[in-house]
């Protein structure tokens, strides 16, 4: 089947839904795609039903760090990749490690239930990881009493203000994902209003387009007769078909012979795009998830770094006991999963809930730089979140 090329006619943004469990994030995500698909002027938007969002096959294939369902849609002025994180733990993990890379977020709050613990936690975390623009969807407005909904709106604005957001001016839109999915005109109009708010309130972020190209590899696939394809989100820079790239971890240099986004061929990809790169003459086993594809000579992998690390409290799903020098957890850095030896220096111990400075010696070298976020995991759960402060 011939494929239609991806034409960059609109700025691309990464957005996502956050909020307490069951407040309707996935339902609203489905409703957004349905409303835009039926609007007709939505261009590339295809309706993604609820059960395709929660159980997107990519989700399983992407493995445990990127447990995210990506949905693509277009408004009149923008192209969005929307992430709907399936659960609270995934949200924390994907936000602290930067995997979600949100330019803006839709905070979903049930008008019936109001602010719940995870509503507050997600706002706090969004602030900490630098999500500067939040639009509020007061969902389930079909089931909520109007006066009660007014109170919930007030509460949400106060919460946002308390966390350093401009709570008085943040757009708050009353929606019903469920009724919009049913095609009820009152509520499809409400979803349109929510999208208008996102279009106008969330600015197009400044992209690191001039930096050397870097793409953390999320997945590696083989396309029979064509070669090896790597997928992931472009972290910085731009790439065109014909450009030379290197995979430092694999010790190879090659040429990009094909470029696609959401199944559509493209001439040039840039920071923020979700892409697949076809690499010339690369054996399937040479490249792995966790490697990066980069402009030749632009990154030098290292094993040693210093970091500030927040040790999750047991309430957040973290450890119940302190850690000390000699602790040897897994470090999730970009898409890489590497074991590391922790040295806490003079601090000696870090208790759940503490933020500490540590040096780490990784089991193998990965590209590192100050400011890079990562997660610390053991036994399949996240126990810490950190930021690299210096390398070497
Ligand atoms: N009345 C009403 N119910 C809704 C609405 N949106 C979602 N629901 C219901 O609320 C429940 C949870 O919806 P989901 O979309 O799965 O919520 P979620 O936030 O994605 O939940 P998690 O992913 O588990 O955190 C489901 O039973 C939905 O049918 C709405 O606008 N109105
Ligand atoms: Mg959901």
UniProtKB/TrEMBL annotation:
Query: Which UniProt key words apply to this protein?
Result: Cytoplasm, Elongation factor, GTP-binding, Hydrolase, Magnesium, Metal-binding, Nucleotide-binding, Protein biosynthesis
Q: Does the keyword GTP-binding apply?
A: yes
User: Superkingdom of this entry's organism?
Assistant: Bacteria
| Residues at which GTP binds | 19-26, 84-88, 139-142
Pfam families attached here?
GTP_EFTU, GTP_EFTU_D2, GTP_EFTU_D3
The record's catalysed reaction(s) read:
GTP + H2O = GDP + phosphate + H(+)
Residues recorded as binding Mg(2+), renumbered to this chain, are 26
Per the UniProt entry, the Enzyme Commission number(s) are 3.6.5.3
- Cite a GO CC annotation: cytosol
Q: Which residues form the Tr-type G domain?
A: 10-206
Q: What is its main location?
A: cytoplasm
- Spell out the molecular function terms from Gene Ontology: GTP binding; GTPase activity; magnesium ion binding; translation elongation factor activity
Q: Which CDD domains match?
A: EF_Tu, EFTU_III
* Localization of this protein: Cytoplasm
* Stored PANTHER family: ELONGATION FACTOR TU, MITOCHONDRIAL (PTHR43721:SF22), ELONGATION FACTOR TU-RELATED (PTHR43721)
Function field: GTP hydrolase that promotes the GTP-dependent binding of aminoacyl-tRNA to the A-site of ribosomes during protein biosynthesis.
Q: What interactions and quaternary structure are annotated?
A: Monomer.
Q: Which family does it belong to?
A: Belongs to the TRAFAC class translation factor GTPase superfamily. Classic translation factor GTPase family. EF-Tu/EF-1A subfamily.
According to UniProt, the name of this protein is Elongation factor Tu
Native organism: Streptomyces shenzhenensis
């Amino acid at each position: 089947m011939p494929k239609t090329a991806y034409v960059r006619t609109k700025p691309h943004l990464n957005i996502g839904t956050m909020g307490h469990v069951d407040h309707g994030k996935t339902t609203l995500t489905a409703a957004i795609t349905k409303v835009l698909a039926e609007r007709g002027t939505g261009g590339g938007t295809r309706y993604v039903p609820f059960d395709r969002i929660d159980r997107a096959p990519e989700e399983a294939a992407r493995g445990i760090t990127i447990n995210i369902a990506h949905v693509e849609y277009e408004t009149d002025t923008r192209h969005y990749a929307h992430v709907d994180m399936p659960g609270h733990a995934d949200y924390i993990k994907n936000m602290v490690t930067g995997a979600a890379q949100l330019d803006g977020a839709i905070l979903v709050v049930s008008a019936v239930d109001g602010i719940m613990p995870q509503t507050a936690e997600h706002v706090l975390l969004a602030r900490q990881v630098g999500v500067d623009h939040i639009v509020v969807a007061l969902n389930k407005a079909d089931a909520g009493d109007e006066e009660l909904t007014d109170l919930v709106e007030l509460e949400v604005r106060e919460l946002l203000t308390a966390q350093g957001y401009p709570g008085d001016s943040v757009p708050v839109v009353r929606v019903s994902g469920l009724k919009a999915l049913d095609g009820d005109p009152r509520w499809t109009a409400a979803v349109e209003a929510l999208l208008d708010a996102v279009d106008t309130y969330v600015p197009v972020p400044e992209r690191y387009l001039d930096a050397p190209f870097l793409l953390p590899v999320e997945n590696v696939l083989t396309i029979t007769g064509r070669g090896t394809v790597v997928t992931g989100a472009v972290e910085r820079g731009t790439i065109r078909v014909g450009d030379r790239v290197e995979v430092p971890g694999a010790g190879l240099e090659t040429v990009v012979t094909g470029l696609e986004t959401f199944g559509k061929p493209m001439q040039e990809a840039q920071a923020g795009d979700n892409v697949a790169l076809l690499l010339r003459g690369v054996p399937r086993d040479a490249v792995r998830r966790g490697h990066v594809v980069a402009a030749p000579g632009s990154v030098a992998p290292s094993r040693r770094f210093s970091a500030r690390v927040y040790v999750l409290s047991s309430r957040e799903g973290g450890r119940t006991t302190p850690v000390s020098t000699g602790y040897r957890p897994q470090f999730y850095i970009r898409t890489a999963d590497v074991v590391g030896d922790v040295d806490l220096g003079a601090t000696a111990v870090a208790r759940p809930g503490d933020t500490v400075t540590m040096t780490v010696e990784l089991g193998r070298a990965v590209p590192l730089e100050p400011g890079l976020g990562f997660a610390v995991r053991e036994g399949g759960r996240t126990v810490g979140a950190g930021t690299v402060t210096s390398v070497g």
